[in-house]
Every structure is written in structure tokens, then in C-alpha cells.
Specification:
alpha/beta; Rossmann fold; five-stranded parallel β-sheet; binds flavin mononucleotide
Amino acid sequence: MRQTSKGKIVTKHKSITLLIGGGIAAYKCLELIRRLSDLGIQTTPVLTKAGTEFVTPLSVATLAGAQVHSDLFDLKNETEIGHIQLSRQSDLLVVAPATADLMAKAANGLANDLASTLLLATDKPVLMAPAMNVRMWEHAATRRNFKTLKDDGILFVGPGSGPMACGETGPGRMAEVEEIIGAIQEALLSKISSPKLTTGPLAGKSVLITAGPTHEPIDPVRYIANRSSGKQGFAIAQAAVDLGADVTLIAGPCALETPRGVTRIDVESALDMFEAATAQLPCDIAICTAAVADWRTQSLASQKMKKSDTGLPVLELTENPDILKTLSAHGPQRPSLVIGFAAETENIIEHARAKRETKQCDWIVANDVSAKGDVFGNDQTTIHIISDEDLITFENISKKEASNALLRRVVDMINPAQVAAQ
Ligand SMILES: Cc1cc2nc3c(=O)[nH]c(=O)nc-3n(C[C@H](O)[C@H](O)[C@H](O)COP(=O)(O)O)c2cc1C
């Protein structure tokens, strides 16, 4: 074992099989292979036919220091049943970029080339890094495939949100190399490298959690933000996974490590978060801890705004879509439990109760973010869980304890017998 520069521990002599699909982001795999090799992780590359249109087998083989596998019907390899060997020799299969096509094949059990056959034949954990145009990512078919793959225990890293090679902006960008490395390390080291927890009081439940702040761009260098650290949402995500839930965490910009076993989608603005959150429906439970900006600028300056003698610039604001309210009112796709968070600076309970009414969520968790409350970025908090029936306060506890307290109530609501038995 050794410590990396980022403080993570990597076990030496681990081996992964990297399946490179046919997308623009395939070029990032060259850097990924190089970084994995620095960490002592051996990569066996598999290039799909379409993948070879984007990176050459020669570059991949040179960086990996290993033969590139492409052909299912390769006589030399298949005398030893190569596709089974490739699975056996790896600790983890990584698909990057995971194209819409590869995801569709894997979700439906198709096996018509080496990569898809390998994905069907393996009993090793699989990590996918999706990369595609935003419309492809948001298409109902890809949503279905993503959900099926998650239900099957496939791990995901990304996609992120931002400008794409096709000129559009939104979710669908492949996660950055460092993020993929982090997810690989997690998968190789932690319990998520074993099959998904199928036990625990939240097993089989899909939980959507939003966390952190949002950044509302003003121009290419400036943005409107808030003081949310994301710590509470990340702690809830970890607690939910530990109870067996299938957790998707939609995170605004924050420098926190992804809790193990959680599918993380990084976003920047409230609009991105709205799109990413609604794309997760249907799900069983939604917990909205993110401090989403109420407003964004009406127009985004394409160049950095300059000081001028003609006076101060006027920022015209427009309202952002309301994620909590939208999830709470989502008709047949409404999660069976929607929990909002209310960060208040005065009349905490009164304002939180009013927010619950307006947003039509089931519970609201209020906390004091005034200078006195000092919750932002802190590890300690005081929370008030407000529902139709009651108000329960947990004073001066860690955010981890607050997460456990909240999720105990969730389990209690879903299955009262489970709590009694604990
Ligand atoms: C220039 C170009 C870029 C493409 N980029 C992507 C992409 O980023 N993601 C994706 O899912 N498909 C992308 N496609 C489409 C795939 O290449 C196509 O669906 C292919 O069949 C995928 O093969 P695979 O299953 O081997 O990955 C792109 C196609 C072209 C021509």
C-alpha cells in the first residue's frame, strides 16, 4: 500500500481492464492510463471498433505497456477464451468513455463485440464514466438504461456538467481524470468493490440527494455563490448508502470527497442542478440539502466585464427553477418521501414551517445559519425535523449524527418494524 499525493491509499499490483468506447472523450483515456500506471495499477485496454476512430491502438498500447484487445473473434486470444480471461485477470472493469451505445448494450445484456461480451461475462465490479451529448444523456432511453445499470450494481462516476465538444452545455461531460482515478481507488479499496449492499433497511430504495452551493455565472470569471459547504448532504449520502440505499448525489461546486458507494453528479449552476435532479426521477426518496441560488443573472456576459467611467454595472436577476417544489409536485413520478432543508437566519421554525407549506414537501429540516448558528462549513449543527405531525430537535450534534437521526426517521416511516428491531 502507498499514500498518493492526494492522500488516498492505493493497493499495489491491482489490475483493471479499461473499456474505451467511441466518444470524443476517449482522448482522456490516454492520460487516465498514464496516471493509473503512476499509481501502480496495471491497465489492460479494450478498444471498441468505434473507440479506434478516436484514439489509436498504438497510443493506448504504448501508454498501457500492454496489448490492446479489440476483436471478439481474435483467433490467438480466443483459443484461451480471451474474453473470459480478460475478466478473470482484473480486479475491476472500467468503461471510459461509457457511450450511450455501450450503456444501452450493457443494460440490455447484448454481447455483439468484445467490450459488451466482457461486460456480460464478468463477475467483477464495473465502473462506468458516461460521456455523451446532453440530449443523448437526457433521452428517456439513456435514463432507463442508467437506472437499470445502477439497479444491477454498476458503479458510476460523473458525468459532470459544462461546455461540450458539440458546442452544447449541460450534463454529459465525462468526469475529469482525477475524479475517475478517485472512483477507481474507492472501488478497488472499499466495500463498493464487492456487490452492492442488498441488505439494510434502505436496500432497494433509490435516494436522490442534492448538496452544496450553486454558482450563478455573471461573466466568464465571476459568479454569485453562497456559503454552503455541502458537508451535511455528503454525510447524509454516506449514511444512506450504509443503510443499503442506492444513492445519487448531485453536488454543487464543493471540494469534498465522494462518499464511498455513492453515484456523484457534479453540477455548477441552479439550472444544471435542476436538470440533473429531475432527470433522476422516478426515485423513492429525495433529500434536498443544497443551497440552491434563488436567482441567476438575466444575461451572461460573454467577456469579462470591465470597470468603466460610465458607472456601476447593473445586474438584472431572474428567478431560478425551484427544485424542491418541482420534485414535490411531480405527479406520478413524485418520490414517496421528499425532504427539504431550510437554512434560516431568524424565526427559524416559523420560516421553515412556511417553507414546507409553500414547497409541498413532506418534511423540512431547519437549521440556523445566522452568525450565532454558524452552521456553514462547520461539522456541528442543530437540526429541527418538521413534519405534519411533529417537530423534533437535535441540538449540537455532528453532521454525521444529524444524518443518522434523519435517516432513522426515514427508515421508521418506510418500515416501522425495522427501527424497533434495531
Ligand atoms: C464525432 C463523433 C463523436 C461522438 N461522440 C460520442 C460521445 O461522446 N458519446 C456517445 O455516446 N456517442 C458518441 N458518438 C456516437 C458513437 O460513436 C456511436 O454511437 C458508436 O456506435 C458507439 O460505439 P461504442 O459502443 O463502441 O462506444 C460520436 C460519434 C461521432 C461521429
